[in-house]
Amino acid sequence: LNGTMTAEEALAVDVKPGVFSTVEDGYYMLCSQNDFYIFTHLVNSGDTKLNAKLCTDIDLSQSEFKNLMIGSESAPFSGVFDGQGHTVAYNYETDKFYSGLFSYVNGATIRNLCVNGTAIAYAQHFGGLIGQSQGNVLVENVIVDAEITGMLNTSTGDGGMIGYNLGNVIFNNCATLGTLGHPGSHWYAGFVGWAENGSSTTLNNCYTTLSLTEGTDSGTSFTFVKAAASGVVTLNNCYYLNEIGAAQGIKMTAEQFASGEVCYKLN
């Protein structure tokens, strides 16, 4: 998987699991950009329940496949992805709904991961981690530090973690950092841009320091989760630095974050 192929062309290549660097105890070990490409291909081709662990940082922003995303509408990721404390970096520019490092997930577990990225989204519901979530999804020990620009002069539904939640998501010990927004746009949230009717979103020991970029309309945004009337949102021991529209959680100052007080409260 070299050369100047597009992401779509790369995913059409008939690659086989055997070319992975290592497979250990049912986990594909992602030790290079090539491993990451192959894993994405396998998931998006229908092997949605594969498990993976990172054994190094992966920088997609410097690759030939900058818009590579795990999972698709017809093949949502439903396995376990363990970052083992490593970072995935991206630099997305996308016009597809429900975009994110994991575009679609259903019943997945994502843990021990750092995400560092920039995104320009020309369609609704970009998520710093996940575009669309379904089923019972667990996200734990994940930090997303992203600059997300929703290039719509209308509602975006973008979120620091998830763009659109249709299922039951639990966040444990997670954080979002960076910025959201674009002049003339609105409808953002620090964790979940939109939680649909009948969904549930639970945050345990989480925080956000996200802020809206200058000129962004904050009137329809929420600090953690923007939810429909029957979407259940539960915040347990969650803190924020900046109000993103409607305040949720517990307000803390920059000094309290810098001093370690927030860290103490989270532990």
First-residue to last-residue Cα separation: 43 Å
**Share of residues in strands:** 35-45%
The helix fraction, in percent, is 10-25%
* Number of helices, where a helix is a run of at least 4 consecutive DSSP H or I residues: 4
Structural class of the secondary elements? mainly beta
The unreliable regions are 1-7, 10-18
List how many beta strands DSSP finds. 22
- Summed over residues and divided by their number, the pLDDT gives a mean of 90
What string gives the helices and strands in order?
Answer: HEEHEEEEEEEEEEEEEEEEEEEEHH
Describe the structure.
By secondary structure, this protein is mainly beta. 11% of the residues lie in helices and 43% in strands. It has helices at 7-11, 33-44, 254-259, 261-266, and strands spanning 22-24, 27-30, 51-54, 58-59, 80-94, 102-106, 109-121, 130-134, 136-150, 155-159, 162-165, 168-172, 175-180, 186-189, 192-195, 200-204, 207-208, 211-212, 225-227, 232-236, 239-240, 250-251. The protein has a 15-stranded mixed sheet that branches. Strands 6-8-11-15-19 form a five-stranded parallel sheet, with no helix packed on it. A two-stranded parallel sheet has the order 10-14. The longest helix is centred in the first third of the chain and has 12 residues, at 33-44.
What's this entry about, in short?
By secondary structure, the chain is mainly β. 11% of the residues lie in helices and 43% in strands.
